[in-house]
């Protein structure tokens, strides 16, 4: 019998938000083909629930654009990760004060594995005092708007070395057009091979 996660009723909303995060990242227009492979792997992990998928180690994080309150800059983040059968969700923020530098705040962490019930650590009430515009994981994911300038994505995948390889260029296909009639030869002159 395959291993299964032990979810509680509150986990449904969090798993829905993780699925929504993957959908938003996939349709953002900000990811390359190799990154879509990683998104598909994580989507398969979610679609297989409650069965454990233990051979995937990958994560996706979405970052909000920075926003400012006086001289203090804030940025929110939302992560979904699978790590050899363990599922993790987290959210939080970064704030940067000119006098103290950058600090990371965690608003929430959630973890599920097959050998114990899922666990949720919600630091939202404390985080609300430390940063503006805090919301639940679901509210945060719903607020992501990749059409707004400044949002960014980080995709990590141990089995896919290409997701963040900025220097990778797919080989260009070699095209050969052989015309067989005058009409086709004329049409071929309009084809841009570059």
Structural write-up:
It is a single chain. This protein is of the alpha+beta class. It has one domain (11-188). 27% of the residues lie in helices and 31% in strands. It has five helices and seven strands. It has helices at residues 11-26, 33-47, 124-130, 137-143, 182-188; strands spanning 57-63, 67-69, 72-83, 86-97, 101-113, 116-122, 152-157. Strands 1, 2, 3, 4, 5, 6 and 7 form a seven-stranded antiparallel beta sheet that branches. A hairpin with a 2-residue loop joins β3 and β4 (86-97). The longest helix has 16 residues, at 11-26. The relative contact order is 0.19.
Structural class: alpha+beta
The Cα radius of gyration reads 22 Å
* Overall outline: flat
Distance between the termini: 54 Å
Low-confidence stretches at least 5 residues in length (pLDDT < 50)? 126-130
**Overall tally of structural domains:** 1
Give the proportion of residues in helices: 25-40%
Strand coverage percent: 25-35%
Mean pLDDT, all residues = 82
How would you characterize the largest beta sheet? Answer: 7 strands, antiparallel
Number of H- or I-type helical stretches: 5
Tally the beta strands: 7
Order of secondary-structure elements: HHEEEEEEHHEH
